Amino acid sequence: MTLKIYDTLTRRKEAFKPISGNRVYMFVCGPTLYDYSHLGHARTYVAFDVIARYLRYKGYTLFYLMNITDVEDRIIQRAEMTNRDPVELAKTLETTFHRDMKALRMNSVNLYARASEHMPEILDQIKRLIEKGYAYETKTGIYYDLARFEDFGELSHQKLDEVKKHRIDPDPTKKNPQDFTLWKKKETGPLWDSPWGKGRPGWHIEDTAISELYLGEQYDIHGGGIDLIFPHHESEIVQMESLSGKKPMARNWLHTGLLMISGERMGKSMGNSVTIADALEDYEAEVLRFFFASTHYRSPIDYTKDKLEQAKNSLETLYTALYNIKRLQTKEEKQLTDEEKKLRKELRETERKFLKAMDDDFNTPIAISHLFDMAKKINIFTAEDGIVDKKLLGEIVNSFKELGGILGVLQREKESVEEELIEKLMDLVIELRREFRNRENFAVSDRIREELRRLGITLEDTPDGMKWRKH
RNA sequence: GCCGGGGUGACUGAGAAGAUAGGUGGUGGGCUGCAGACCCACAUACGUCGGUUCAAUUCCGAUCCCCGGCUCCA
């Protein structure tokens, strides 16, 4: 089966063909470290994590690169507002970013590349752009001369003269208001030396400098949130293609739909920003990932408590089906029964359909629907048969874990389920024992403590209440 | 103004010229000592108006509404 991926450039689903055989090179625009990572980042990065997992599942050797913007005016602004050092602020936020990514079970990125550590490559690209006549220097910085680039606007389908409008007054030294900054001459804040004096790089140049270094002039996939199409990705194309003379810079441009909060655009100014850490306090990572995967990655997604509850219940339905079949008695016979053969056939069908859906531009909602179909078949089987072939059971459990693993769900380990269960059971036992003690029924309460001790659990009455531990 | 995306049942969310999407919630039934789980069934679903067609929610046109981008954005 061939994988088809929607390409923002052609606005069509295209059959996916890596440039060099089995190797796939993917770049995703990472965070700018001026604030805590929020659910919008989570949505985008989970989407690309799923894409990365699926590419690897299909057997591609994927190199997944993400930049980390640790040099940027907003970071400096934020640092000034809070009286902090911008370098230290970025460092702290980078640590929490990685903590959040890990908490969301994100592990598919091969290399994170900091802008601050790629200054030579950034300067080199700017130099080459000047040499080729694409960029010019003014009193305030180095600018890209958009009049020199013919194919401007391919990605966003904007015409150059349509984008003259601007919210911020353009720098008066620019030839055209649309020209974007490659290097800003500055005297305050974190500064780097350049042939044009001290300053900092523009917004778009770090990405092409980093991607050129690790992935080359042309590579397979470039991704990010849909809000980056213009001007960010458009400018990247301008920079890279004018240097390399090769197009397209990326074979496939993928963009994720934005996350909304209760129907509104999430943003600081709206006062409705939810950090990843906040969300993880209310819902476990699997529920968030399931919630994201329930909507196609290109569609906008609306975060509400209600929808998260729906996602949580839905995910639980899948777990329950697994639980239902796992608790059956197992047997090892040479022959499967007709019912078991049928179930195994349905399992293979489910796998096939799941992968077919993923091949169609990573259609996770459809893929998930096939898991539910299978869950129903499992439930029917378990309602009718009290016993199941051990090998078949293993196949079903593995299959769910493998397919779910592509989405990063259904990975809950047996141990952790049981540990969670034990916690809850102990809460209950303790509560019951407290009632017996309150009624001065010490015979029963002592018996509870004694029986638990034999089971390997020590109960202690402490001033802070009853505590228990394994011994 | 320009460039995109979208309007599907209580909520969500796919899809495609003719199929029952799937899920959550609700109601009724089955199973059950009770509850839960599970199974079965049910609810005027495809923004509006035209057109093409044997047939459209799916194609075409018009129209209304929503969302995003237009140099801060994942």
Secondary structure tally, helices: 14
What overall form do the CA principal axes indicate? globular
Query: Quick one: biggest sheet?
Result: 5 strands, parallel
The structure class reads: alpha/beta
Beta-strand portion reads: 15-25%
Q: Quickly give the CATH architecture of the largest domain.
A: 3-Layer(aba) Sandwich
Percent of residues in helices comes to 40-55%
The figure for the number of domains is: 3
CATH class of the largest domain: Alpha Beta
User: Which stretches are low in confidence, meaning pLDDT under 50 for 5 or more residues running?
Assistant: none
Strand count: 18
Enter the CATH topology name of the largest domain.
Rossmann fold
The value of Rg in angstroms is 28 Å
Mean pLDDT: 90
Which sequence of strands runs across the widest sheet?
A: 5-4-3-10-11
State the end-to-end CA separation. 54 Å
| Name of the CATH homologous superfamily of the largest domain | HUPs
Q: How is this structure best described in words?
A:
The chain has 471 residues and is of the alpha/beta class. The protein has three domains: 4-256, Rossmann fold, CATH 3.40.50.620; 304-412, Four Helix Bundle (Hemerythrin (Met), subunit A); 415-470, no CATH class. It contains 14 helices and 18 strands. The strands form six sheets. A five-stranded parallel beta sheet has the order 5-4-3-10-11, sandwiched between helices. The protein is globular, with a radius of gyration of 28 Å. The protein binds one RNA strand of 74 nucleotides through helix 1, helix 2, strand 10, helix 6 and helix 9.
